[in-house]
Amino acid sequence: MNNINFAGFYRGALRMKLYPESAAVQLEFNKIKELLVAHCQSHYAQEKAKELRIHTHKKFVDTDLRQSHEFKQLLLNSIYFPNDHVLNLAKELKLLSIDGAVLQGEDLVQIRRLAESIEKIFRWFNEERKVAYPGLLEIIQHTYYEKAIKALIDEIVDELGAVKDSASEELKEIRLGLYRKRTELRRIFDRIISKLNKQGYLAEIEESFMNGRRVVAVFAEHKRAVKGVLHGESDSRKTTFIEPEETMHLNNEISDLENQERKEVYRILRLLTSRLSQHAALLNIYHAVVGEYDFARAKAKFAIDINGEYPVVHDKAFVHLVNAYHPLLYLYNKNTDKQTIPVSISLDDSRRILVISGPNAGGKTVTMKTIGLLQMMLQSGLLVPVHPSSEFGIFKQLMIHIGDTQSLEFELSTYSSHLIHMKHFMENANGKTLFFIDELGSGSDPNLGGAFAEVILLELLRKHSYGVVTTHYLNLKVMAGKTAGIINGAMAFDEKRLQPQYQLIVGKPGSSYTFSIAERIGLDKRLIEKARSLVEEDQYRLDKLLNRTEQDLRDIAKKDKELQHLIKENERLQKEMNQVMDRERHKQQVAVLKEQNRISEQRIAYLKDMERKLKQITIEWKKEDDKPKLIRQITALLFNQGETKKASKMQKKIENKYSEVGGEIKVGDKVKMKRNHQVGEVLEIKSKRAVVKIGLLPMQVELNDLVVVKENTTV
Question: Which pTM value belongs to this model?
């Protein structure tokens, strides 16, 4: 793999220190890399995945995570990104740095495609995408597109890699000569074949080639009848291949021209390779660029497989996991339609070390591996299967001790090997260390092993390191409960069904359920009681207490879950009731508003009618000589509002007396006003208005406010 020393690719020399060397294998980080490699299309990306670097610098972690996240969004939203070039051109690009080297036409086509891919990538990043995908933009941020590379290649070779006739004047003349000679040779050959075919000498009527020269296929018995050079015969010896004498000089001339063509093509390709060598460094960067984008795509595809998310990253050592999954277990369960139980845990200044206890096969080791594996993945720039609210710190070293692997080299016992590992832990741990110890103190006398386990934990705590240990020792559970910085955790277990729940409960120790399991599986009670008698009374009582406490806590958790369900159901019903009440109040409000609008409309109509009448009175005041009579009419109009009911009755009488006829309004027609139902006679029509006499008062009314009526006849 080429090491490109520019922003976006250079990752520095700082890597997470792992202890022991097999730590990555123990945490199954190697399997993660294998799955990632499977998603890589280019050789560059595959090699990078195999050598996946675990960063200790937050800047590099953020960059890789952001690129993975942005490409994941592209894939989820089906947005095309032009990173289709995945060929390995390391060999071809290396030739560019060798003086006198010559690239073939096919190689040049691939280099052109590489340059074309870079061109498409630069064009893809418009102003909007530069803002939306800053992580992916960073990969090309400090390079540029050189159009001269494509131009140099396009001038010399075509899309298939053949050197163009126009590559040089010499080549053009040579190929023109070849065309003419080959045309002449074809004409002569056609004549010879026609002649020999008529004579019945030919085994095949098609011309053939042997040793780069044109020959005819002649029956062996007629070979002496054809003058020329014998070039060979068929396996059956029934057919001979002869170069006719008439074509020998043309074949010689063509062969000479072909040699000239090869020499000229070689010269042209060598010159082109020399010119391209000026861009060798840039082309190597291009090769790395398309590889980086392929790697980002591979990480994004893997993230989709494991439901990986982009959590918050801090430049300090701590762990805050919310609904975290072991990625390999998640994939396995997903393929087998099984549920995966997530783990949530926090390790910080006040809770540096978690002591997990509980029965065997309850998930203690898996929980521990989940935390360690996700930390390695995150610092490698991989999205991890956690809730997005999770937060990760940066650790500079990771230590792990799992199992009871003996050291055959030094002929050490299990416990001796265990202590050697613990010695390394205590001597090298610091505030940037994340450690994992499975079955701390195992392999020795319980009392002595438990004592040393306490000492080890206290020393690791003194070194300000962070970690997770699993144990069955009661003294460690007690110690964790009373020592600041160390907390208990238990794996949930269903005693009734004798089934592990694979769920971590932080804040309390767990029971090993030794006697409960023995009772449930039907072990002889006599033997169980004998075993109990051999156990110290205090120890037995403590384990029994832990057992009962765990069951009580699980019952409380169940009841709490039921209570939360009832609370949510009550909230839902309350919300529905409020919605119903809101709808009823809304209906009432709408009804009130409608009534108010109706009254307002009537009032407006009344006021407009009054305005019209007052204007007419003003006009009549000037004309009418009988002023007292007019004053009485005005008084009746303005002040007899108390007679509304009487007027209403009169209106009904009018409606009963007159029927609407409709049609065109003419002078002399009886008309009714639509607004107040008053009836009068049309005196005059002026454009869109009519002068209507109602009682003694003539007034102007809009024609569209009138309807023709006729008086009903009574029988």
Answer: 0.68
